[in-house]
Fold this sequence. Notes:
Elements (H helix, E strand, L loop, with lengths): L2 H19 L6 E12 L4 E11 L6 E15 L3 E12 L2 E2 L2 E2 L2 E16 L2 E14 L3 E14 L9 E13 L5 E13 L4 E11 L4 E11 L9
Parallel strand pairs: 1-13
Antiparallel strand pairs: 1-2, 2-3, 3-4, 4-7, 5-6, 7-8, 8-9, 9-10, 10-11, 11-12, 12-13
Amino acid sequence: MTYFTRYLLVFVCALFTLTAANGQDTNSGAWYMYFGTNKIGQNLYWHNEIQYRNHNWGGDLEQLLLRTGVGFDLTENNNNLLLGYGYIISQPYHQNEKSEILEHRIFQQFINKETIGRIVIQNRYRLEERFLSEDYKMRFRYFMGFNIPLSQSRMAPKTVYLSLYNEIFLNLNAPVFDRNRVYGALGYTINNTLKVEAGYMTQLYENNYRGQFQLAVFNTMPFSSRNE
């Protein structure tokens, strides 16, 4: 049995136990996500993102999030800036009736990455200007994530890894605390530009929480050569 198969079996068992425990909880849903970070110049890259979020495992849309942007690498693979735009369709329930909220979002972010031992650490600082159907809000987000290789000593192709992150959301107006996300997943690097993750994320609000199963694909295939 390969490393990947063994880790996958253990993770699936743990995930099944977790989702079964929440099986009767209407606060559990599923997110299916694609993230692209593709080089378009010597220091420029294009960010593209699709997130299909469900109230349940599928077929009951909670939110469709489309995000794109252009980034600039300050240093190779370590520090970068991004200016982006997002279009979001949200369909929340209120007393068993669904409504629809449209949002246009502009955001600016700075990402710092570093490797300590075998652990890859990412810090992301993001400011959002949110233009909703009948409102305008500003929000700050701080993300700290860890990728820990399990089957090899570093994040190389065909590596099974553990992915963990915590992200806090703070409004620039009252109430200040918006939410906090805690995430754990098992990932696999298919090659140098493609990896997949499956895991579970809990969103903690002031008075309640919501859990989501997550399946994500990450693509970093460049659209231009490094020596362009």
